[in-house]
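Model it.
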Amino acid sequence: MTDTRHPRFLVVDDDPGVRLAVGRIIRRYGEFVPAATIDRAAVLLDDGSRWTGFLFDFHLPDGSGLDLLAQARATHRITPAMILTGNHHDEAANAAHDLRAHYVIKPVVTERIENFLRDATSLASRVAPALQEWAACYGLSRAEADLLGRTALGESKFAITAARETSRETIKTQVACLLRKTGDDSLHAAAERLLRDVARI
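Modeled.
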């Protein structure tokens, strides 16, 4: 499964002071990767890396943090996320909820960010027991369970293929076998269902 010894957090905020303050907190939990614009963040999101968590400002110079998160969800469907904003908007709060993100009003209390970071970095240890139950219940092979676990932790198929040192065709075959066993419509649907089980443990 994913190497959890190196958590990485993408912080997108155009305020250098906010980036500095949030960065100080994040460095106690993992790597702090800052960006000031959606364009720069999009480059970072497209490199196939696994992210432990996202912290995006709502108002950015080239768009909305919610739009950025919607874009990120195409490849990082279940990565923990937090939207930071200076103003409360009911519609934006609802949109953040729909994108499975915390919606937090600035100035953000340090403890709230730390709670988010702790939850995000402990996800792998919480996924492991649920994944073992799934493997036993559905008769998943070691490779299928590893594939599901990596997906649940936010790795892209590209990153999984590289980490497992295998071909895309092999991954496709393993996904097809996994879905036949679990009855899910897609790998991401299976991963999301696994994470719902994790939340109940």
